[in-house]
UniProtKB/TrEMBL annotation:
Record's GO cellular component terms: mitochondrion
Gene3D superfamilies membership: 3.40.50.880
PANTHER family noted in UniProt: ES1 PROTEIN HOMOLOG, MITOCHONDRIAL, GLUTAMINE AMIDOTRANSFERASE-LIKE CLASS 1 DOMAIN-CONTAINING PROTEIN 3, MITOCHONDRIAL-RELATED
The protein's name in its UniProt record: Glutamine amidotransferase class 1 domain containing 3
NCBIfam families xref list: PRK11780.1 (NF008747)
Length: 184
């Protein structure tokens, strides 16, 4: 936590967590990357958008919105996990995403209400288990619940792995590699 009178800086915090050099999102271009992955966590609801405060009436950070639209228009995959699928739901109309289940189920899915907000934003919510990823083939958007579920870390790991794998499979370079391999 910052000392009294100080505020937190997203870039400084990102560098601390990543333990390395980070780059401002304003410098990200779809032309230079094969996919975009948004890891989620409360920061996605608080710093990348106003979802934590405003729910379905949230605003998305202008650079996050630009990146989502740019990758989408370029036909490049976008992966989002945990609470981050709300970003795609807000920016990419009609997108299919998951944040897991739509009922709390005795506390196993404590943020299940997020599914209703996603629907209110005009997106389709698809119920998935924590170990699964939902693949919106049309929009090349891959999502997984991650920490939206109260469960063991290895299950969350499996779901994030599924999201990352599907995002890789949707990259334009992968079909080209398989075609080249098939030609010998």
């Amino acid at each position: 936590q910052p000392s009294e009178g100080e505020s937190r800086n997203v870039l400084t915090e990102s560098a601390r967590i990543a333990r390395g050099k980070i780059t401002d999102l304003a410098n990200l271009s779809a032309a230079n990357h094969d996919a975009a992955i948004f890891p989620g966590g409360f920061g996605a609801a608080k710093n990348l958008s106003t979802f934590a405060v405003d729910g379905k009436d949230c605003k998305v950070n202008k650079e996050v919105e630009r990146v989502l639209k740019e990758f989408h228009q370029a036909g490049k995959p976008i992966g989002l996990c945990c609470i981050a699928p709300v970003l795609a739901a807000k920016v990419l109309r009609g997108v299919e995403v998951t944040v897991g289940h739509e009922q709390e189920e005795g506390g196993k899915w404590p943020y299940a209400g997020t599914a209703e907000a996603i629907k209110a934003l005009g997106a389709k919510h698809c119920v998935k288990e924590v170990v699964e990823a939902h693949v919106d083939q049309k929009n090349k958007v891959v999502t997984t619940p991650a920490f939206m579920c109260e469960t063991a870390l290895h299950y969350i790991h499996d779901g994030i792995g599924a999201m990352a794998s599907w995002a890789c499979w949707l990259m334009p370079v992968i079909p080209a590699l398989w075609e080249a391999k098939a030609r010998g």
